[in-house]
Amino acid sequence: MGAASSLEPLLRELGIVFEEQAMAKVTFVFGASGNLSRQIEEGAPLDVFISADVSFIEHLQDSGLVQNGSSRNFAEGQLVAITRLLVPPEVSWQELATDNRVRFISIANPEVAPYGHQAKAALTGAGLWEHVEPRVAHGQTVAQVFQFVASGNADVGFTAQSLVMHGLPSNVTVIPVSPCDHGGLPQTVVGISATHQWELTEQFVNFIDEWATPEVLARHGYGMSLGTFEDKVCP
Amino acid sequence: MSLIMDMTALRLSLQIASVSTILAIIVGVPIALLLARVRFRGRGIISALVLVPIFLPPSVMGFYLLQLVGRQSIVGSALERVFDFSLVFHWSGAVLAAFVASTPFLIRTAQAGFESVDLRYEEVARTLGRSEVAIFWTVTMPLAWKALLAGVALALARAMGEFGATLMVAGNIPGKTQTMSIAIYDAVQANRLNDAHVLALTLALVTLGLLVGVGVFARGGKW
Predict the structure, then answer these.
(1) Do the Cβ atoms of A126 and A94 come closer than 8 Å?
(2) What's residue A231's pLDDT?
């Protein structure tokens, strides 16, 4: 199974449970969703693809590489702003982004990383992009963004909640960014049509959907899937 | 990506590689000479230590450079306090990364060049009453010149291709710290393969041109 690196802790736990239940061995290949999707196009022997970016799934669907009806949005990624600056507890991410102590704001490369893309969307939507753009420093991944902030090199960063669940330095403050501000980050699983393991693949796709209860997801820094985002009512 | 952006990336690469190579010459040549000429305890260890940036993975080196000059480090916080300046996320950070990555190539090659100079020539000059500085410029340098230029060419080539450490220290800011190498990586990541091919070909041709130029210069203008 090819899976987005940001999902690793969640999928490791899920993998153990699934192996017991299905009496099958699961091997995960973790990487950037974009790289994995390109490898699938080139014929990588993967049975399942779990992507942090739904656009790659859509791309594979268009190329006929995905099993019909196997796609499930099983979780919602949570974008957060993190900072080492001393801020009041009720500060909003918009206030943080425009704080005049900020020299550098780090986001993951919006061209390739879904969390970076949505961070840019949130900043643009709030009319702040023009203001922050001169201060933006791209990380290649949300993990690098986290490193930039944790090491004190960037003052503010936009990263994934799933990365700040464990071992967060005490001087880092986490401020949630509502999915309404950026349009959502569906985490999607699909079966690959080239698989020789049709039944097992189907079993896994259904299993992940059942297993991903709100409690499990919350423990790993994810929310319940919002389904098709346009249906969701945002204030 | 627009053509203008490509040109900025190329200009940045050239700017960073030139400054880094000049620094590599200023710092590397004296170290090479020291290692080649002065017998001191621990010379073998220093000679090997110089090669650390070659065998350490660039991104790991970048990580430690970030620790060393980052905004919370002693160096970084002093720079920011006194000059309101940050190496991190700035093209000078990319110069530092390229300098550290490329100087070992110059040092090792120049050291071998200095070591291959027959010491008797220098001694003859000394008996004729030449000063050490004059001996260096009129005897050692002309004899070690080609090895030195080979070292410069290696350092320049390495600086043009530097990627991992640059990404860590200078980030990836289009128009500010996004060099050709990083722009190529970005284009591949974003599945803009045509852009990637154009950028890679440009980087290859420009760097080849520079290296041919250094070679022609080494042969005194002869092709």
Answers:
(1) yes
(2) 58
User: Which of A6, A5, A135, A140 lies closest to A83 in space, CA to CA?
Assistant: A135
Residue A69 exposure: Cα atoms within 13 Å on the Cβ side: 3
Q: Which residues of A touch B89 (CB under 8 A)?
A: 104, 137, 153-154
Contacts of B186 in chain A (CB under 8 A): 109, 111-112
Looking at the partner chain, which of B70, B171, B189 has a beta carbon nearest the beta carbon of A137? B171
Q: Is residue A174 within 8 Å of A30, Cβ to Cβ? A: no
> Whose CA is closest to A98, among A112, A85, A113, A114?
A85
- Domain spans in chain B, listed from the N-terminal domain onward: 3-179
Superfamily of domain B3-179: MetI-like (1.10.3720.10)
**Residue indicated by tokens 């799934």:** A57
Q: How much is the pLDDT for B20?
A: 97
| Cα of B105 to nearest chain A Cα, Å | 28
Domains in chain A: ranges and CATH: 2-76+185-231 (3.40.190.10), 79-182 (3.40.190.10)
Which chain B residues contact residue A138 at CB under 8 A?
Answer: 171-173
ipTM above 0.90, yes or no: no
Q: What is the pLDDT of residues B173-219, one digit of tens each?
A: 888 899 999 999 888 888 788 899 999 999 999 999 999 998 888 88
Q: Quick check: pTM over 0.90?
A: no
